[in-house]
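ENTRY TYPE: paired fold submission
RECORD: A
CONTENT: sequence, then structure tokens
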Amino acid sequence: MHDARQSACAEIEERIVRGDLSSGLRLDERTLAGELEVDAGVVREALACLERDNLTRAEADGGFSVASLDENELRELYPVALLLEGLAVRTAPEFPLEQLDRLREINERLGACLGDPTTAATCNWEFHDELVRGCGNEQLLDTLRPLKRQLLRYEFAYMDIAPIVERSAGQHAGIVDALAANDRERAAALVEANFRDALPDLLARMSAGARA
């Protein structure tokens, strides 16, 4: 039962993050159970678990819906992610050459996917996940990763302007160069700038979408 719940939780989370289950959507537990080939009770447990990560919302009648994308949540999550990821980079052990090569490869894919917000958001998430995976502080990572999954919902929805992608790829390149020079402080500062610069654009895209 535990494995089935974990699998259902991961699949439903992926659908929510990618926007396949849209913001505010009322969730049909029986339909999801049929699609995932699990009992409806397993789906219900998974939806309750996802509520703790602010991806689903319990309704008054006992059902669940997809948590709405919210400007206030975005404003609150970005500064926390900024601080945690900056700390992860500052305190990580030395970055080996193979990790720097992986970061460059991911960033090249990011720079090549202008006009494809889904791929751009995925590459952006992969870059930042690779950047922090070796920091050695599991408590920090356990806090950061759910936040980043929540933020990925917004990036999938709104990371669709070429200048945003180009700027992000340029900042990523600077981060890797600083790490290659073993300038951890500069790399962390560039990570923090990457988050700070992205937030106004995402908020503007949300506002434009709300007016449309």
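RECORD: B
CONTENT: sequence, then structure tokens
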Amino acid sequence: MKLFIVHCGFYDTDVLEGVYESHVCFVVPAESFEDARVKVKLEPTFQAKRMHVDGLQMVEALKGYRVNLVLDDALAGQSLITSSRHRDLAPKKLET
């Protein structure tokens, strides 16, 4: 299994009537580029936003470190991704 980054585009009608294309990246374990493309298209968010695939990258090594995916049956297919926000960009409540 290899690690892929799948760059997807979509037009969100909630943002400026969908005039501008927005983008997100999905991280997908897959056997091949085509397998990664098929898997990302099964993602509920991909389908709900009517996304399209703009590009795919296979990550084999980073800064001298090889990427090695190991199946962990205890996770039962669950993804574990830890995020850290470097700043709070949420809208502030306006006092009126």
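NOTES ON RECORD B: The chain has a mean pLDDT of 90. The radius of gyration is 17 Å.
STATUS: closed
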